[in-house]
Amino acid sequence: MRVLSAWHQYAFVIRQLTARELKRKYARSSLGILWSILNPLLSMAVLSLIFLNMFRRSIENYPIYYLTGYLVWQTFTLATTSAMTALPDNKPLLLKVRFPMDIFLLARVYTAGVNLVYSLIAYAVMLIVFGISFKWTMLLAPVYLFLLFCFSLGMSYLLAVACVFFGDVRHLYTVLLTLWMYCSALFYPVSQLSEFMQTVVRMNPIYAYISSLRGAVLDGTLPSGLVWLQMLCFGILTLLLGRTVFKFYRKKIVEFL
Amino acid sequence: MPSAKHPEILLRDVTMRFRRTKDTPTSLKEWMVSLLNPKLRKQAESFLALDSISFRIDPGEIVGIIGTNGSGKSTLLKIISGVLPPSSGVVFADRRKIELLTLGTGFDLELTGRENVYLNGALIGFTKRGLDRKYDSIVSFAELSDFMDEKVRNYSSGMVSRLAFSIATSKSTPRILILDEVLSVGDRFFREKSERRIREMIQSGSTVLIVSHSTQVIRSLCTRVLWIERGKLRADGDPDTVCRAYETMGKV
């Protein structure tokens, strides 16, 4: 009972912290929170216009091909980069409240999740505009996105710990992200790569989520058994590893901050 | 007489060590350099915020804690309330009964007064339902009914602390109450009102720990005073004696 009410309280705190992040982002604009939907919608419209005329021969429905990858990539980078600095950003708070420290991290990742929901609305509009018909495989999208969420959370734990001890991890990570992005086949077909690079891309956790979602939306196909295994392992194992590492360094983090 | 068997709070040899940030490698480059050169690695020196502090507090005591800035008072409170785990030593205290009152935890200038009540309330342990129920009385005590939909950015500093005080003291009185510099906010009238509220909380029978710079406040409220100086317990006794010793040190 006590555990249950504690979790209830944590959930309330996370919602409040998330509300703060969302409200703050557009605090000084007249449209306010409406930007949360407008922003992804407009950027998706612009991107589709740009990519409408590229790679047309090799990829069908190229704008949607790109936007699907973009959605996954944006969510992952937003979650990890914001959660990475959650501890130093909230330092004064952290030493005052009695909640587990990871609440601040969770709130940042959860904020990215809420942003994903807004982006999904924009994405749905794009699907309709480009005449993508409904496929039952689309119903599995929440499962893929949930596993992506687990993977992002796990990575956030690891990055947050690293960031406390080595402040320059955050700069290194942005460089790494650029490299990672080019290995995620966001805007080119994998088949155009050399065999070696194809293997690299297929080993990439993010690509597993992207390709599954593309299959579900564009072709109505399910991921292969291997890709399912990848998504599950990357999602759940990373989360477990992240949490374990975080717990292990908990006391040290407090001293270092 | 407080029972000899069951202290409310018991500290035994509590030590808190913080690392001095300038001595630790905060970049990967420095860390790698320190790996190659062990001489540099040993330099990491630590800073003793608390140096084996021991004392006990019995139920019903009202204990003031004084000491100059940076002497370790706030660290001590955080350890007692369980926010910080001590580097070594033992703390006996039932953490569920302890309430650490601090002002304006997580106040955000870009949010409205109302949003801050909920954010701050959530952070200091209010439930959603509890906040819904107490909301009106929080606002009226702070005398800010007309400003709640205004961003806190536009408040005066007095208004901010009035709101913060009102939220912090609206929770039901706990068994062990810890007040960290919450007295002396707002103008004279609000200060009197807030001292009345604190007195009510004290009189409802809980054990109270008060940190304050004002020996006047400590003298008028406490039954016992602890003086912490540079992480060490310098004196422990009745308010008059300890406060006087503290004041004479300030003059030298």
UniProtKB/TrEMBL annotation, chain A:
Pfam family membership, one: ABC2_membrane
Every ABC transmembrane type-2 domain range: 31-252
Keyword entries, A-Z: Cell inner membrane, Cell membrane, Membrane, Transmembrane, Transmembrane helix, Transport
Membrane topology: Multi-pass membrane protein
UniProt entry tagged with the keyword Lyase: no
Domain of life: Bacteria
Primary localization: membrane
Subcellular compartments: Cell inner membrane; Cell membrane
Record-level GO cellular component terms: plasma membrane
Gene Ontology molecular-function annotations: ABC-type transporter activity
Similarity section: Belongs to the ABC-2 integral membrane protein family.
Name of this protein: Transport permease protein
Organism name: Merdimmobilis hominis
